[in-house]
Amino acid sequence: MGERQAAGAPKRVPPARRAAATDRPRLRVVRPPARRSAKDAARLARVDLILLAASSAFLTATGLVMVLSAGSVSAAQGYGGNSFWYFERQVVYAVVGIAAAAAAYRLPTREWRRLGTPLLAITALLMLIAAHPSSGTSLYGASRWIDLGPVTLQPSEFAKLALVAFTATVLANKWDKLDDPAHLLLPLGPVVAIIAGLGILQRDLGTTLIICASVFVMLFVAGVRLRYLAITGAAGLAGVSFLVFGEAYRKARLFEAWLDPWADPQRTGYQLIQGLIAIGSGGWFGTGLGTSRAKWDFLPNAHSDFIFAVIGEELGLLGAFVVLIAFGVLIYAGIRIAVHATGTFERLLAAGVIGWIGLQAIVNLGAVTGLLPITGVPLPLVSFGGTALVVTLAGVGVLAGIARSSVKAAGTRTAAGRRASARKASS
């Protein structure tokens, strides 16, 4: 028997166990990268890019068709009889978004570590300008747009991508200190609070929730301790409750428009009821493309937030199901890209981007079908909205760029291995 350890002395941990605890994989859901050959990495990236491009192209094309159909009546009424007004603008936004996706695809992924902070600072300034009554444009009680003449800019959409890049940079830089709450809070906590505060100042709770939830997903994927996540989630839930019960219109949306829309079918419950009527009237195969009755001034925002209701009416359950499958493929492709990425920053960035797009799709679809409260967020790639479409397509380009960088990294490792083998053979 050796000497007993003195009372109160710290327990000695064997070096091997201490090293294993330090080097344990942190990432949840997204596994640490496997060392693959350039050929295997290229094959996986090719599949990832096909799934990503096919699903995003299908959803964008579907959005163009449905914006033309769902928005034709309101466009003709509001823009001098031009029923193609929304469609024409959405086509322009789609072209700009594709260009943004191509630029993001060509941009080296490591550049997002450098661009995240300045992009977020510029976005915060624009959000502050949009929230000010003298410079911002208000609609439905929210002030979240900047009118630039021919185009209208929504800065909070840029905040989604910028904050994801910033969060991925902070978590990657503090990778060995994620168990320390102080390092988690600084600088991430104040920055997220500022962006969320600007979103609330714009009276845009839906987008604010999407932004904060995306950061929460990244913290979970990064392997932050569950008790810290529980505290963060509880604090966020308390904040949301305060905001909901502190505003009469938000409280009405929760208790009347969502939980019991038939209590006031002509006011607070009107939009949800009309959306459900539109979906229900589509049946299995729909009433036919362009034949929606809901878009004739019955369903508010038929071409934007509630476009999925028109999809269900005109294309039926089968058409709506195809759209859901496309979103599932898009999310699956994003997860695959995160799994196959080679660096910690790249994996976190991919997880953040697909987390934001997936969460927004779930929130919109849940609101239209009555499963979640109405929050006013668009359906990604499908709803009318210039800034939202451009930024979402840019996010798709970021995912494609991460898949491309994984192939390059594997090729670099393979070439380095061959050179090392050649040097060893020659010696």
Structure description:
Mean pLDDT is 86; it is low at 1-11 and 13-25. The protein has one domain. The chain is globular and about 55 Å long. The termini are far apart. The protein has 427 residues and is mostly helical. The chain is built from 15 helices and three strands. The chain has a three-stranded antiparallel sheet, with helices on one face. A hairpin with a 2-residue loop joins β1 (137-139) and β2. α2 runs antiparallel to α15 (386-426), α5 (111-131) packs parallel to α8 (188-201) and α6 packs parallel to α15. The longest helix has 41 residues, at 386-426.
Give the strand tally. Answer: 3
Rg, Cα atoms, Å: 24 Å
How many domains in all? 1
Low-confidence stretches: 1-11, 13-25
Mean pLDDT: 86
How large is the count of helical segments? Answer: 15
Task: Please outline the major beta sheet.
Answer: 3 strands, antiparallel
Strand arrangement, largest sheet?
A: 1-2-3
As an assembly, this protein is single chain
In percent terms, what proportion of residues is strand?
under 5%
Following the backbone from N to C, one meets helices and strands in this order, namely HHHHHEEEHHHHHHHHHH
Q: Can you tell me the overall shape?
A: globular
Which structural category do the helix and sheet elements fall into? mainly alpha
Give the N-terminus to C-terminus distance in angstroms. Answer: 51 Å
Could you estimate the helical fraction of the residues in percent? 55-70%
Map the helices and strands:
Blueprint: H1 15-23, H2 38-70, H3 72-78, H4 85-106, H5 111-131, E1 137-139, E2 142-147, E3 152-153, H6 155-173, H7 181-185, H8 188-201, H9 205-221, H10 226-246, H11 248-258, H12 270-281, H13 307-340, H14 344-368, H15 386-426
Helix pairs in contact: 2-4, 2-13, 2-15, 4-15, 5-6, 5-8, 6-8, 6-9, 6-14, 6-15, 8-9, 9-10, 9-14, 10-11, 12-13, 13-14, 13-15, 14-15
